[in-house]
Amino acid sequence: MSLMTLGRLVLQAADRHAAYVAMQAPGSGGWADISFAELGRAAREIAAGLHDLGLGPGDRVAILGATRPEWTLADCGTLLAGATVVPIYHTNPASECRYVLAHSGACAVICEDADQLAKIREVQPDCVDLRHIITMVPTDDRDVVSLEELRGRGVAAGADADAIDRISGSVRDDDVATIVYTSGTTGPPKGCMLTHRNVLATIDMYARQVRIEPGDSAFFFLPLAHVLARVTQFVALDSGGTLAFYSRDPAKLLDDIATLRPTHLPSVPRLFEKIHTRALATAADEGGVKAAIFTRALSTARRARAIERAGRRPDPVLRARRALADRAVLHRVRDLLGGRIQLCLTGAAPISVEVLEFFDACGIVIVEGYGMTESCAAATLNTPSHVRFGTVGQALPGAEMRVADDGEVLLRGPHVFPGYYRNEEATRETIDDDGWLHTGDLGAIDDDGYLRITGRAKDLIITSSGKNITPSNLEAELRESRWISQAVVYGDQHPYLVAMLTLDPEEAPSLAQRLGVADDPAKMAADPRVRDALQEEIDRVNRDVSRISEIKRFGVLERDLTLDADELTPTLKVKRNRVYEHHHDFFEHLYDG
User: Fold this and answer.
1) What is the DSSP letter of 396?
2) Which helix (H) or strand (E) holds 60?
3) Which residue range is the domain that position 279 belongs to?
4) Does 259 lie in the same domain as 146?
5) Count of beta carbons in the 10 Å neighbourhood of residue 140
6) For burial by CB atoms within 10 Å, which of 41, 140, 321, 368 has the most?
7) What is the pLDDT of residues 495-538, one digit of tens each?
8) Shared-domain flag, residues 57 and 84
9) Residue 43, C-beta contacts closer than 8 angstroms, at least 6 positions apart
10) Is there a single domain that holds both residue 226 and residue 314?
């Protein structure tokens, strides 16, 4: 049985890449570098500190906080101690924190600051196994231990290499490294157990397809409670790459990217959709000659890239025109992302081909992949040399994939989890006797092995005439609109489809000015001129679908969907059933008359 674990991976990376920067940490004066040597030292001290508290192999340690360097240090140290990491989204309300802490039987929680500590204090009486509270940053609460104090305890207890070897020596690769609770678009979250072997296999799968060299940097803003962000974190560290952390101000996200100039950017589609919208909106607002130059430049680059993706070389005239277009216009999009981007990775939700082709024309490769928490965020991936837009790529090395007779995507391999924590019934429903993981997603595999996701079985809308319709593709197309932030299609057991639209808060003022209406969300939602503008977007999407898949009517919500209202997951996916429940009357009213 292998002794390779995630904790040992961290220590080996710290030794191999000692001369490189492991993390860039935001602070009041900019970003400070944290070396691989410091990362390894911190992990040892945290592991020894946890051991001094009586925590070790088999114990569950929760981490509750936003994406920041201390999250990664806590993760590495806890894994090195042999304990099981239980991540909790920092956006979770106290009630959901209670559920995860109590269900996992967490013995300790490492929370970010006073705000997150307040949630823990509120639910602590119901979490009978919780014995220790540690904060990433110091607070006024003297009954908790700060991460710095925990490291001090580790030093005092002996954080040398021999001591760490004794602490972690009993950990095996088939031990559970982490229990990741699904964000739950439907029903209560389930705890996905992922072993060290699962995560290490996934790291290897991605490392073989996504090249990161020592000195490269990956920008981190996705929640580290999400398994894709955590796996990417370990891929970067194992490769000697730098984790470049955002300033924790969502409004400054693009500014942070431009400042840090990363080479790799893992993200969800919404970031790329917003950049795409902003670029097109800027060109449209400039109008006249500038808008025409932008449109022509984009068209030229798209033609050239389509030829290159087909394995051919554009003719000299097209190459020259593409170079001119790049110098005049397209380089500005790359500059938005710092000018050094080698690769962007997107997953978690559908992204439209239009957005992918736009960035491709601008010289930015976005590869779309597919996976789920239960498969350790791994299954398929497009690669820079083998991209097929409209698909989520081919199976990663070592991953098996097939489509069942009913269209469900099935996965198998060393990355697939052993089951749900304390939920054998759900495990049996998800993994069959042959080891195939039933994803619940519908898809098709082409002759070259590229997977196209066609929908999610639970999200299928079955109209009153018995037609099955996948709403996610319609919604992704609508989100391409400059004016639309979210779209939710509805129509189960109804004769036709309707949709709820929300206005993009950043673009709504421009729409109000263009139409000469009041810049007030409630008034805009009801204004006929706004509805006419949105009807054009509905018509655009309807032109490319069958009659039964057309959206016949729509309404505009007076606000955007939010995390606080429990309408979005932390990765900004719509909680469809929750939206249907919250806004039932809104949808049903669209059928009146």
Assistant:
1) P
2) strand 60-64
3) 269-339+341-457
4) yes
5) 7
6) 368
7) 899 999 999 998 999 999 999 998 998 899 999 999 999 999 99
8) yes
9) 7, 10, 11, 14, 73, 76, 77, 80
10) no
Tokens read off for 341: 């981007």
Residues 142 and 284 in one domain: no
Angle at 395 between CA 390 and CA 397, to 5 degrees: 145
Q: How many domains does the chain have?
A: 3
**Each residue's pLDDT tens digit, 360-395:** 999 999 999 999 999 999 999 999 888 899 899 999
- Identify the bridge partners of residue 193 per DSSP, sorted by sequence position: 179, 419
Residue 230 and residue 323 in one domain:
no
Instruction: Determine the average pLDDT of the residues in 295-314.
Output: 91
Q: Is 473 helix (H, G, I), strand (E, B) or coil?
A: helix
3-state DSSP percent of the chain in helix, strand and coil, to 5: 45, 20, 35
pTM score: 0.85
Q: Are residues 41 and 62 in the same domain?
A: yes
Encoding tokens for residue 38?
A: 């410091």
Does one domain contain both 525 and 579?
yes
| Cα 23 to Cα 37: distance, rounded to the nearest angstrom | 11
Distance CA 120, CA 93 (A): 10
pLDDT digits over 460-481, tens only?
Answer: 788 877 777 878 888 988 998 9
- CATH number at 297 reads 3.40.50.12780
What is the average per-residue pLDDT within 424-448? 94
